[in-house]
Amino acid sequence: MNFRKQHSIEPSPMQLAPLVDVLFLLVIFFAVTFQYAKEEQVMDVSVPAADEGKEKESRNVGEIIINIKKDGEILVNGQKFNTDELLVKLKNIVALYKDQAVILRGDEGTPYQNVIRVLDTCQKAGIWNIAFATRKPEADQPAATPK
After folding, report:
1. pLDDT 10s digits, 44-63
2. CB atoms within 10 A of CB 110
3. How far apart are CA 39 and CA 47, in angstroms?
């Protein structure tokens, strides 16, 4: 006598719907991330070279990047600002975040007065954590040495 029942467990078919959902979410994530990363590089700002300059691949959350173009135009997140509008925006941010970090990306061809104008605006807004963006010099160009 055979008391064991012969049950064969059939393999369940692979569920494709959850896999498609995950794949779709990954595509959306990378598309959105690529768009924000591309925006910062299309600003048409060539920062000056420095021996200790670094190309920063990642950004900290909450950093504000202020781009100053050759003609003195001020851009923050792709939007144009004059100094008064920038002051209002920075004051609103400082009201929420006292230790707000700002990175100034001034074009190497912009007059120094334009950079000082933005720096002064940051100081008026109460921002003290300010950094200047630079890049490494190209290998074929010798770094400028002070005379």
Report:
1. 666 666 766 555 555 555 67
2. 19
3. 16
- Which residue type does 96 have? L
Residues 6+ apart with CB under 8 A from 87: 121, 124, 125
Q: Looking at residue 61, what DSSP letter applies?
A: T
The CA distance from 133 to 22, in Å, is: 37
Euclidean distance between CA atoms 91 and 124, whole angstroms: 8
E-strand ranges in the chain read 64-68, 74-76, 79-81, 101-106, 129-132
- Per-residue pLDDT tens digits for 124-134: 999 988 888 87
What are 15-20's contacts with CB under 8 Å, separation 24+?
A: none
Distance CA 134, CA 15 (A): 50
Residue type, 72: G
